[in-house]
Amino acid sequence: MKDTFMTVKELSKYLNIKGKTIYSWVSKAVIPFYRMQGVLRFKKGEIDVWLKSKCKSIEGLFGL
Length: 64
Known about the structure:
By secondary structure, this protein is of the alpha+beta class. It has one domain: Multidrug-efflux Transporter Regulator, Chain: A, Domain 2, CATH 1.10.1660. Helices cover 52% and strands 16% of the residues. It is built from 4 helices and 3 strands. A 3-stranded antiparallel β-sheet has the order 1-3-2. 5% of the residues are buried.
């Protein structure tokens, strides 16, 4: 399932954010994406890795 492509709508639901936010991130190249014949797609596995890289560790969060 890691190589499953998601649409903007599916990713929006997966991340629980608005589609406009995803389009903004794409325009700023913040999130990994593919553009296939003008249509945006996102690989679930790459999104999961990207999300993990954005999480702060508990140690860093509390300054330990």
